Batch of 3 targets.
Target 1
Amino acid sequence: MTPDRGCCALLISVLLFAGCGKPNTPNAPAELRVGQFLFASASARVSLVGEDGDSSVLSLSYAELTDYRAFSPGSYTVDVHAGGQHLLHKTIGLGTGGRYSLLLAGIPQEGQEVNQATFGTRLHRIFEGAAARTDNDFLPTLLLQNDYFVPVPGEGNLRVTQLVPGLIPVDVELDREGDQQASLKGIAYAHTSDRDQFTAGTYAASLHLAGSPQDRLKFQLELDTSTFTNVYILPAAGDSRRLRVVTGRTSQ
């Protein structure tokens, strides 16, 4: 074979190999649900506007957690209004094929500024991750959670988020068939436990103030292998001394 023919054969081989790659497909949409957990706010309006023009406006009652909705991947500007006030203006990012929960928490204050933050909170924001999160005097805040999980045979995925302004860290105990199975310790306000896995089944769950044996709340919890269960601890509407749970499930 001459050099010219050899070069042509090599070029054709390269082009054929390249053509065997995965075909171009549209980006898989992201999925997002929203939880309205702003205490003492009977309702809130949440608007999301994407960089590509994709947008949505949601009107939510207190303690309402929406179903997942599809969004184009990318950056979104989020604005939250409640009680006739503009409370929050933030930017979030939604990845291709990802599932997320956007949570509103805290207590709106009359006459507050948009994104109002205390001096201590502004100082903490020089850090990243959990170290940057403060109670911010319980002013309104947004939390964006990634709901990705990996199913494991015989195990259920669980995560607990504590959204009760003013409540000290809490422990959640899980009991199955009368025997204590596991516990999640020291979950502070506006923080979330690790994503943990427990034997699938039905549990009697109890919530305690950290280090205290006294129950503050009891509820039943069902964990299965194909579902990621998220438990959100909230104050009951109109009474911050009473607690309630909202449960969100993410299916495989």
Note: Residues 1 and 7 are 10 Å apart (CA to CA).
Target 2
Amino acid sequence: MKLEERNSDNFERAWGQRNGTKAFFDGLSRELLYAACKGLEAPLHPMAYVSDQLMVLRQTDTCCNLLADAGFYSIEGILPDAVCETIRQCIGTDTEQMIPVVLLEKQWEMRIIPAEQGALLVFAAAAQQQIGVTLAASHLRDSAQSLLLQADLLSMQNMPDAAAQLRLQAMRILRQVNHMQLLAGAPEMLHWEQCSARKLLNNVAEQLAAHDIHVILSAPQPDITFLADKNLLAAALLTLVSNSLRHGGPEVHVVLSAEKYGSSVSFGVADDGVGISAQALERMNDTWRRPDALPGRWGLGIPYARKIAAMHSGLLLFLQGKEGGTSAHLRIPLEAASADVLESGSDYQTMLASGVCAADIELSDVLEAAAYRRG
């Protein structure tokens, strides 16, 4: 028996033991059972299977209480339009995603797992604020700030190379702590504002150019306006560019673009490098949670960018080019979803306010110390 089949059998038995019902699984295919096995300890959570038309085909008893106590109904009107659109895009692109939703005045993390021309929706109660993570992040930021102050002193003492090394290490600390806290930190409000796709791309390109990294811009014509946290969105794009530079090879070229995609804006980061391996594509949804998420192999960058997309009720997907290279597409709705379900980049904005450039942080994984040499 294949591993996924054995896991499915174990899962079905576990569900019956925990919930006293197997109605959800009666006649369910192996593919859907295997998808359920991936759903955040699914036996503990409400779960529903929806079609590509967003009709609920079956659901657990706990999901009846969460969504609707009915046999066949649409989740449109229950979930926000932006969330429904994200589910459709996940089904259409066969991309898993986790996004926050509010149901019964409570915040949930909804995992979307495409399967059989539909999607399995698994609802997990959102984690409470991780006080330990917040405290650790604060200490790490203090350490990074101390390194930056020491670097300034070394520069004044005519030791620019040593100062550059300290700045590089400080930026790498800030990168990791920003990614870590966003993935496991406390829920707050996003800083919403009206944004211009063209201005956002130009801002990212200018930050890259300051580090002698030049990208090809494909600005939208006409411009696209949308609501978002522009600092976090820029950080996500810079992270994706860093990923292309790190894995694309020394001669890689990167293209930044934006286009309207239905009721969303889709930002593209495409490269002509060696591409992403099939193993990486399979694992990138939860690489940072795995025991083998070691530095240099499975990092926080892609989960971080995906989390920022999810915070905007959007998604991040990857496509392999026919002639090599990879293109990442970060799509978010043009209009903001309910702010109650979104988390904040306030700590990131604090770092920007202290004079640290977003590109300094997000590119620290691919730049050498010389890039942080002043004077």
Note: The chain has a mean pLDDT of 79.
Target 3
Amino acid sequence: MNYTKEELIEEIKELMKINDNETIDINPNYLEYFQEDELLDIIKQLYSRKENISSITTSYLDEIYEKTKKDEI
């Protein structure tokens, strides 16, 4: 599927958000230097980071939960 640069940039902005109320602004002049394949790579990297953060958070919360079950906190 082919995406326009504008669509890719919007996806990047969404992936950069920490919460839904946040607004991300990216200087459009800066993004003009990127080609579509480079923007796609940025999107892949952002997805990967979000997955890693989610995985780390889940592991951390699981560890805390197990400690609370054992009254180790």
Note: The mean pLDDT is 82.
